[in-house]
Amino acid sequence: MLCKSQENKKTERIQTPKHFKILDKKEGDLDNDGVFEKVIVYDTEKETDMGTERQIYIYKKNHNKWELWKKSVGAILPSEHGGMMGDPFEGISINKNCIVINHSGGARQRWHYTHRFRFQTGKFQLIGATWSNSKLWFPL
């Protein structure tokens, strides 16, 4: 019995940057080329006025190796930006070739943000933002 070799079928793993922690990761086709990219949200442990800084790294495959393609600082809110509710980051998703980011927070007045980014003209651009808030009433 003959078996064909599985040569070059393995894909190299992505090395998490030193002192970073993975908060979320998703795969999907972001540039409409038929090949999935990988999006990873990291907590950098770098202190800011509102908690630790978060970054998004987007990786593309090149000859079965993941390579950093794009990086964003600021699209993910810092760890304490949610007010009394704590960490505002809810997660990311990939929908219709877009990166969708959800945040929420607040105290008596709750808020929720959704931001949608699409790769166009060589970079990721904000193509939609949804914001909502609601007041919570407590009887005294």
Outline the secondary-structure elements.
Elements: E1 21-28, E2 37-48, E3 51-62, E4 65-73, E5 89-95, E6 98-106, E7 109-120, E8 123-135
Antiparallel strand pairs: 1-2, 2-3, 3-4, 5-6, 6-7, 7-8
Salient structural properties:
140 residues; mainly beta; four-stranded antiparallel sheet; 8 strands; 59% strand
Q: So how many helices?
A: 0
Strand content: over 45%
Give the structural class. mainly beta
Please state the CA-atom Rg, rounded to the nearest Å: 19 Å
State the low-pLDDT regions, or none: 1-9
Q: Can you give the helix content as a percent range?
A: under 10%
Shape: globular
Structure summary, number of beta strands? 8
Spell the H/E element sequence. Answer: EEEEEEEE
Structure write-up:
By secondary structure, this protein is mostly beta strands. The protein has one domain. Helix content is 0%, strand content 59%. The chain contains no helices and 8 strands. The strands form 2 sheets. The chain has a 4-stranded antiparallel beta sheet with strand order 1-2-3-4, with no helix packed on it. Strands 5-6-7-8 form a 4-stranded antiparallel beta sheet, with no helix packed on it.
Short description:
This protein is mostly beta strands and about 140 residues long.
